[in-house]
């Protein structure tokens, strides 16, 4: 390969990655919903949820891909400020399974799904306008003991 050919391919690969990078970004920006899977091994398949400011409403669909019952391996998805996560979890645990481990009318909770077991799905929708630009937001499962691994970041884009 001579110098010219090498440069040529290098330029092409930069152009290609710029094109595909932009394309991916455009797809993400257009989507006002996301599906997060939860498993029997106590994990979410997603570590970060990008929420476009341009969305009037944003929906998170939670899908439990396992088979275990919700008493044993139940999952939900709760959104709050990072700094509120621990108190929200503590109050959720007191509220119990009948409340999906979320304290009723908890103003620190921006959105949450019902607690579901294997094979079930649940959704929640919120307005991205409720997110303060300067705060850090997280999503997590409030089933007792799960949030230490079942958690991720909410990123406003
Ligand atoms: Cu869980």
Automatic annotation (TrEMBL):
Signal peptide: 1-28
Residue span(s) of domain Blue (type 1) copper: 31-156
Compartment(s) of residence: Periplasm
InterPro entries according to UniProt: Azurin (IPR014068), BlueCu_1 (IPR000923), BlueCu_1_BS (IPR028871), Cu-binding_ET (IPR050845), Cupredoxin (IPR008972)
A Pfam family: Copper-bind
Keyword Transport in record: yes
Predominant subcellular localization, coarse grouping: periplasm
Keyword Metal-binding: yes
Keywords for the protein's UniProt record, in alphabetical order: Copper, Electron transport, Metal-binding, Periplasm, Signal, Transport
Coiled-coil ranges per UniProt: none
Job of this protein: Transfers electrons from cytochrome c551 to cytochrome oxidase.
Protein name: Azurin
Annotated organism of origin: Methylophilus aquaticus
């Amino acid at each position: 390969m001579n110098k010219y050919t090498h440069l040529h391919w290098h330029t092409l690969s930069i152009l290609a990655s710029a094109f595909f990078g932009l394309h991916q970004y455009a797809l993400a920006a257009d989507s006002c919903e996301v599906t997060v899977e939860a498993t029997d091994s106590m994990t979410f398949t997603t570590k970060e949820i990008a929420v476009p400011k341009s969305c009037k409403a944003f929906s998170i669909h939670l899908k439990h891909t396992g088979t275990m019952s919700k008493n044993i391996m139940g999952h939900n998805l709760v959104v709050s400020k990072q700094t509120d996560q621990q108190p929200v979890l503590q109050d959720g645990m007191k509220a119990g399974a009948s409340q999906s481990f979320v304290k009723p009318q908890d103003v620190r909770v921006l959105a949450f799904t019902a607690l579901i077991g294997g094979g079930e799905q649940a959704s929640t929708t919120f307005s991205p306008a409720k997110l303060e630009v300067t705060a850090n937001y997280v999503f997590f499962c409030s089933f007792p003991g799960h949030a230490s691994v079942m958690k991720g970041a909410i990123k406003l884009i």
